[in-house]
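Figure 6 in text form: structure in, sequence out.
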């Protein structure tokens, strides 16, 4: 898996990003309509000060009549209606488009996450990924909405107002009043970079606290069982304090920026009143023009203050977009072939040819020179000590991790020539950690194919010997199992997982220590059901209990990354090796238990 390093951050990166541009192009008509309406209402608003100034001059000169008052009131009422309707319309267009972009980005991110290998999720915790899906995408959405709105508002109102101040009132007064605003550009350069750093730290702290809470809630039983509540509370307080510190540092910068912008506006207003009042007394401009100038200057307060808000929003959006793009640019090391090139279903024949594998970044072979051949319809048993590489072997068969070429063959085809969707849909996998979704038992069993009928679901449950347990629940197959199947016992979760694989009737069924939590009688019944129902289909069973494997057509014993023994049950027992040792020890344990019962 190759991760693309994020580019150096810049406050306008979000506007130059190709990923961002594709959304702007997609929703350009919504944005153009919203922008057009925003410009119209901004231009309309700048007419109000001049209308008021003319009325004041008319009163002072005694040249205004009743009809002029009525005309001024009608003009301002029309402008008010235009502004009201325009604000509703542009919000619908621009904010609506930004919400659609938010939806599209979440879909893109979730879709891409599904394409990444398991190793990615080992390197990136759930809290970090949740931060991408929530806070980061929300920050990008705010940029697509608030930045466009406020930026356009700032430009339209700012430029139009300045032009009216200069051309219609007084050039020197306009220059004197606007000079303090030049400080904004100087401060903004520093603030933008610092905001980016602080917001990135804040997001990282959010990811850390999210992951901490998610992990501890999932392991609440363990925490209670070992009476570790106080220690975990203290640990959470430390993580929470780190998050608080990052948020306060971010808030301090915001707390500086917005008052600073208002201070600039206040300075401009003070200068304008002092100098403007002076030249009004001298008669260089009229009282009405001075009044209009003050109103125009008040209108400039919003564009000035919005500079700080724009810097804040764009900076956050830029940092968040880079985090999201970094995920989207991450490419899986497991290369797929197009289904159209080779979408024929595979058979259950499996062959390993000197299969050797080590995990990326390590120098130790997990598997070394593993070779075996399994004909379609046969059952392979795999046994070995913990950490011997048994699960790694089946993960390679599913290409969860990628083997080297010419080492694994399925259905007579080199595994890399088979599309992942074809390969994995041909294999039913029951993992060691029986993960169930927070859904009904019915939906968990039918997870691989939602079109299955209730009769097929029930039949799969009966094969897995869990039907009677399900019927004991008040809601039967509509029972909610809770997060990760928390409301079920370990044996029930295992058997529901087995039913989930069996309902697909796969060419190859893999049981990875999937019967460890069930009693021997239930285990025997499940194995008998598999033998009857899966005749002529391939099975791979990994187990520590010899009773689970003894009827397999072939058994391999893995130790020290290699196959050290292989054969049938009777042959391996007769050899007197590792397998025989395990068998005799388990047989002795069984006899002791039976004596204890007597």
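Output sequence:
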């Amino acid at each position: 898996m190759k991760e693309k390093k994020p580019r150096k951050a810049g406050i306008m990166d979000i506007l130059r990003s190709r990923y961002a541009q594709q959304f702007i192009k997609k929703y350009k008509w919504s944005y153009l309509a919203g922008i057009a309406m925003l410009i119209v209402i901004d231009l309309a608003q700048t007419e109000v000060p001049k209308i008021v100034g003319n009325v004041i001059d008319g009163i002072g000169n005694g040249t205004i009549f009743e009809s002029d008052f009525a005309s001024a009131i009608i003009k301002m009422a029309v402008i008010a209606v235009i502004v009201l309707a325009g604000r509703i319309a542009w919000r619908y267009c621009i904010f609506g488009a930004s919400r659609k972009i938010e939806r599209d980005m979440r879909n893109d991110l979730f879709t891409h996450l599904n394409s990444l290998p398991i190793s990615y999720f080992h390197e990136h915790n759930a809290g970090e990924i949740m931060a991408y899906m929530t806070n980061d995408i929300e920050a990008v959405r705010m940029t697509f909405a608030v930045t466009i709105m406020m930026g356009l508002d700032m430009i339209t109102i700012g430029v139009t107002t300045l032009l009216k101040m200069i051309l219609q009132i007084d050039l020197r007064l306009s220059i004197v009043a606007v000079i303090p605003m030049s400080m904004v550009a100087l401060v903004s350069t520093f603030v933008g970079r610092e905001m980016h750093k602080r917001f990135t730290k804040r997001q990282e702290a959010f990811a850390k606290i999210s992951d901490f809470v998610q992990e501890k809630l999932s392991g609440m039983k363990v925490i209670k069982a070992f009476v570790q509540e106080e220690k975990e509370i203290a640990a959470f307080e430390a993580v929470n304090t780190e998050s608080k510190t990052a948020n306060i540092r971010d808030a301090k910068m915001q707390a500086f920026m917005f008052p600073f912008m208002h201070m600039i506006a206040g300075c401009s207003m003070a200068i304008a009143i002092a100098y403007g009042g002076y030249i009004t007394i001298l008669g260089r401009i009229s009282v009405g023009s001075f009044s209009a100038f003050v109103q125009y200057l008040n209108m400039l307060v919003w564009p000035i203050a919005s500079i700080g808000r724009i810097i804040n929003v764009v900076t956050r959006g830029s940092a968040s977009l880079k985090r999201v793009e970094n995920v989207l640019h991450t490419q899986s090391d497991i290369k797929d072939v197009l289904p159209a090139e080779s979408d024929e279903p595979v058979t259950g024949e499996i062959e390993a040819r000197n299969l050797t594998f080590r995990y990326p970044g390590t120098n130790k072979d997990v598997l070394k020179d593993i070779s075996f051949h399994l004909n379609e319809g046969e059952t392979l048993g795999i046994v070995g000590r913990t950490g011997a590489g048994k699960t790694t072997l089946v993960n390679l068969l599913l290409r969860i991790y990628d083997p080297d070429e010419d080492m694994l063959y399925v259905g007579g085809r080199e595994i890399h020539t088979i599309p992942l969707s074809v390969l994995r849909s041909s294999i039913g996998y029951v993992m060691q950690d029986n993960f169930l979704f927070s859904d009904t038992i019915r939906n968990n069993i039918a997870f691989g194919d939602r079109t299955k009928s209730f009769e097929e679901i029930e039949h799969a449950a009966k094969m897995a010997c869990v039907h009677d347990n399900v019927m004991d629940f008040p809601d039967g197959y509509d029972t909610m199992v809770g997060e990760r199947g928390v409301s079920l016992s370990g044996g029930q979760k295992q058997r529901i997982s087995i039913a989930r694989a069996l309902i697909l009737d796969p060419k190859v069924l893999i049981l990875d220590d999937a019967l460890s939590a069930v009693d021997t009688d239930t285990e025997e019944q499940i194995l008998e059901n598999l033998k009857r129902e899966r005749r002529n289909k391939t099975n791979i069973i990994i187990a520590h209990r010899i009773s689970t494997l003894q009827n397999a057509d072939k058994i391999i014993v893995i130790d020290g990354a290699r196959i050290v023994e292989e054969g049938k049950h009777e042959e391996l027992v007769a050899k007197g090796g590792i397998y025989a040792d395990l068998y005799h020890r388990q047989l002795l344990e069984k006899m002791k238990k039976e004596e204890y019962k007597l």
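Caption detail: Residues 229-281 form the longest helix (53 residues).
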